[in-house]
Design goal:
Blueprint (H helix, E strand, L loop, with lengths): L2 H7 L38 H7 L23 H13 L22 H7 L2 H4 L11 H18 L3 E3 L5 H18 L8 E5 L5 H8 L3 E5 L9 H7 L4 E7 L11 H10 L3 E5 L19 E5 H4 L12 E5 L11 E4 L4 E4 L16 H38 L16 H14 L5 E10 L6 E10 L6 H4 L7 H4 L11 H12 L3 E7 L3 E9 L7
The structure holds pyridoxal-5'-phosphate.
Length: about 525
């Protein structure tokens, strides 16, 4: 065993990258495999008595709706269908088979298998979207409840789950913006959508498909969306702003509320692409920043698979004022019964068939329920820490630089994590945060540092538990008893990140009296080795 492999096995160097040989079959599309007359299943002839009792069932279907000829479906035996799809599946590099490297934003996250099992329950998987609503009350309840959750997370008032992808949800936003201006008699005049170059390309492509001209803003010298460029771009023609935040660079626009204000003053609406919401869940809300519309990608932020993993779902949210334009149907609840409301005269119509990818909504709902509000906030903290960690690793590669938001030491997530950790340990008493400039000799020579300390008067940590506090998933093993459980993952990432930035995190604690977490961060980044 090479020392490199040993290091990986010992867990010192992370998971071992695997070599992979893709299976390749000389497999045609299923239509080419068709043999006329072959059948997967032979349906028994109907008994005479049943046929007589039923009469000519074809007559119950109106003539214009009847097929003139059989559908052009491939004809294969069951075993040939099975072999075909097994071979094709072997050619797929799916998330479960992958090599510890995400293939894209949708597959880099954890999609718990328990949610898959829930979605495969016959009560869910055997539903048909054309069933009478009385027979799908449970599923409608899940749609309704998840809508209430997204309202809380986003600060907006109504949601539709009809779009089958983020881009379809963004298109829905564009169509609603168009409908809104048309209702105000401004369809001709309001013909421009403003976006930024680091927003997802869908934020330009979708309004274009919806018939708008698209104005793209370039960033200021620090990589932030350029406020001056926005001021120059708005006019009487501005129909709206459609932007991603944090942008696809990972940079959060700190002047987002000002962007919204300027566009509103020009008579435009603002749509928030929240496909990158993993880092802001429970931290900031589209509604609070003044947005009129938003979308979430359930397959990115809410642990449902996409791409190699399964069908997607985009959730479009709007203010109460714009709810009349949402696609039909929307799910309503009268206190006793759920119903699908199609009677909405100002609707933009249908974006996609039926009312959404039900299993995806169920999985997202299950995920949120398993985490709770506090867990969602922790998701955001860990997501940002992970990003910073990865960013730092990438920047250590020779030749790689991040031209934007340079020198921004993103320590706020470390602070947030230490604070939320302290709050978890402190049912009564208080938590104090102190930040001060200092000089530190730990690295040999005196260097200017910032010292952040979070002091709590909570329950404290036992000496034996302090040793494992910063190890991921060990807090659970140690059975540390407190009101709010944590995994230690956030603390582990925080400490590693601080170390990578040339700093450190220490914890001191006295059982029954509280703890002090101190983070020391040099003011200058360590030189690249
Ligand atoms: C920020 C952002 N917006 C929109 C989309 C489009 O979503 P979808 O791929 O589901 O159409 C993506 C997908 O990568 C995205 O990252």
């Amino acid at each position: 065993m090479s020392s490199e492999i040993r290091r990986h096995r010992m867990g010192e160097a992370g998971p071992l990258p695997r070599r992979f040989h893709q299976a390749r079959w000389d497999e045609s599309v299923i239509f080419d495999l068709s043999t006329p007359g072959a059948r997967g299943l032979l349906v028994p002839e109907v008994e005479r008595e049943v046929a007589d009792a039923a009469g000519n069932v074809l007559e119950t279907i109106p003539e214009p709706l009847r097929r003139a000829s059989p559908p052009a479906l491939p004809e294969l035996s069951q075993v040939h269908v099975l072999r075909h799809y097994l071979r094709v599946s072997q050619e797929t590099l799916g998330a479960d088979l992958n090599i510890d490297v995400g293939q894209g934003t949708c597959t880099m996250k954890h999609n718990p298998k328990i949610n898959e099992q829930l979605a495969r329950l016959p009560e869910i998987s055997e539903l048909h979207p054309l069933q009478d609503e009385d027979t799908v009350q449970g599923m409608l309840e899940i749609f309704y409840r998840f809508e209430q959750i997204l309202k809380e997370i986003s600060g907006l008032d109504r949601f539709t789950f009809q779009p089958g992808a983020g881009s379809q949800a963004i298109y829905t936003n564009a169509a609603i913006i168009r409908a809104y201006h048309a209702t105000n008699g401004q369809a001709e005049q309001k013909d421009e959508i403003i976006t930024t170059i680091f927003s997802h390309p869908s934020d330009a492509a979708c309004p274009k498909v919806a018939g708008f001209k698209v104005i793209t803003l370039y960033p200021d010298e620090n990589g932030y969306p350029d406020l001056e460029a926005l001021k120059a771009a708005v006019s009487d023609h501005t129909a709206g702003l459609m932007i991603t935040n944090p942008e696809d660079t990972g940079i959060f626009n700190p002047r987002i509320a000002e962007f919204v204000r300027i566009v509103h003053e020009a008579g435009g609406l603002c749509a928030y692409d929240q496909a990158n919401a993993n880092g802001i869940l429970g931290v900031t809300r589209a509604g609070d920043a003044g947005f009129d519309l938003c979308q979430f990608n359930l397959h990115k932020t809410f642990a449902t698979p996409h791409g190699c993993g399964g069908p997607a779902a985009g959730a479009t949210g709007v203010t109460a004022e714009l709810a009349r334009f949402l696609p039909v149907p929307v799910v309503e609840f009268d206190g006793e019964r759920y119903r699908l409301d199609y009677d909405r005269p100002e609707t933009i119509g249908k974006i996609r068939q039926f009312y959404g990818v039900a299993p995806a909504v169920l999985k997202a709902y299950a995920w949120v329920m398993s985490l709770g509000a506090e867990g969602l906030r922790q998701v955001a903290e860990v997501a940002v820490l992970n990003n910073n960690y990865l960013m730092h690793k990438v920047l250590q590669i020779r030749g790689v630089s991040a031209p934007y938001a340079q020198g921004k030491r993103r320590v706020e997530q470390v602070l947030l994590n230490l604070l939320s950790n302290a709050v978890k340990f402190t049912e009564k008493g208080g938590v104090t945060l102190r930040a001060e400039g200092a000089s530190d000799n730990a690295a040999g020579a005196a260097r200017p540092v910032v010292r952040l300390s979070v002091t709590d008067t909570g329950m404290g940590i036992k000496v034996e538990d302090l040793a494992t506090l910063f190890q991921p998933f060990r807090q659970i093993d140690s059975g540390l008893a407190r009101n709010h459980e944590g995994t230690g993952l956030g603390l582990a990432i925080c400490r590693r990140l601080a170390e990578l930035l040339g700093g450190e995190i220490r914890a001191e604690s006295e059982w029954g009296k509280g703890s002090v977490f101190t983070c020391i961060m040099p003011l200058k980044e360590p030189a690249k080795s």
